[in-house]
Amino acid sequence: MLNIRKQHYEPFEEREDMDKNELSLENVQAGSEKKSQPAFWKVWVKTARPFSLSAAVSPVLVGTAVAAYEGTFHLAAFVATLLACLFLQIAANYFNEYFDYRYGLDHEGSLGASTVIFRHEMTAMQVLAGGISCFAIATVFGLMLIYLVGPAIILFGLAGMAIAYFYSAKPFQFAIRGLGDILVYIAMGFLMTWGAYYVQIPRWSWLAFAASVPVGFLVVAILNMNNTRDIQDDVVVHKLTLPVRFGQLFGQRFHAFLLIGSYIAVTIFVLLRVLPYFSLLVWITFPLAFTNVRSVLAATDRKAFAIGIKRTSMLHLQFGVMLALGIVIAAISRPLL
């Protein structure tokens, strides 16, 4: 009896061990999937494309510095403007992600997209809701500016929101029509710089206009580098960006023109006595620009252009900080000269 009992228990124990092994294997697989899935907040941050946010910071710094040069600085207006512009930029990034997915302009292997929808890290509706939420937050800060400055700010806000939304969305889809460069220059070069000035001193300023030119050149350079990297994908979906229309070599040379042109523009405006002499502090960043241009002109693969995007975004921020700093130093030192 004891032997028979033992024979009956051995298969049971083996099956029990097999079941335990299968459960442990499933737990390991589930754990690895859980670890491979990024934290939810990280997905939202990635979709916001933090490296691109210098495009909103630099013009606000420069426009505010110009107002300080002319004797006015209101901290509350500066903070509200900065936050409104940041959330408008984040909204534009969310809308771009959503509409490029919806219209079939991106795929899972797209280098330009964060591909959170394709990876099932976020649903399409969550991405759209993210863009709408950022619009709502930007509107709150816009209402603060209306209270501080006046109703004219509504025009700046409506223009910024329209460009941010219809850059990717129908019926206009400015990006696929090759109008992205000029609209980005207008929105994130001219309007943001002058707007940051206007909330401090509500009037037109040629000084603010001059300061917006190099800032606008550099923000267009970020977009152009993005379009140059994505030329192969954009040709397939008939997205008529400038590099698609005129070729990759054009995109590389246009990049060089925009970066070098930013420094030349500042120098010309200084010589014309529109910008103060201390604005020439931007030349401190020129070695970074030179290295950037040289690497882009020598690039032959898409990953090199992807690196160029982040380098140009960083240059845009550094250039803007130095231009703003130079203008502020000129404001402080002017009574001493």
Brief characterization of the structure:
With 337 residues, the chain is mainly α. The protein is 74% helix and 0% strand.
Q: What can you see in these coordinates?
A:
The protein has 337 residues and is mainly α. Helices cover 74% and strands 0% of the residues. The protein is built from 13 helices and no strands. The protein has helices at residues 2-36, 40-48, 54-69, 75-102, 124-148, 153-166, 180-198, 206-229, 231-236, 242-246, 248-271, 286-298, 302-333. Helix 8 (206-229) runs antiparallel to helix 11 (248-271). The longest helix has 35 residues, at 2-36. The radius of gyration is 26 Å and the shape is globular. The N and C termini lie far apart (111 Å). Mean pLDDT is 87; it is low at 1-10 and 28-35.
Span of the ends, CA to CA: 111 Å
Unreliable segments of 5+ consecutive residues: 1-10, 28-35
Cα-based radius of gyration, to the nearest Å = 26 Å
**Class from helix and strand fractions:** mainly alpha
How does the overall form come out from the CA principal axes?
A: globular
Strand-residue proportion: under 5%
Helix content: over 70%
Please provide the ordered H/E string of secondary-structure elements: HHHHHHHHHHHHH
Tally of DSSP β-strands: 0
Mean pLDDT, nearest integer? 87
Count of DSSP H/I helices? 13
Question: In this structure, how is the largest beta sheet organized?
Answer: none
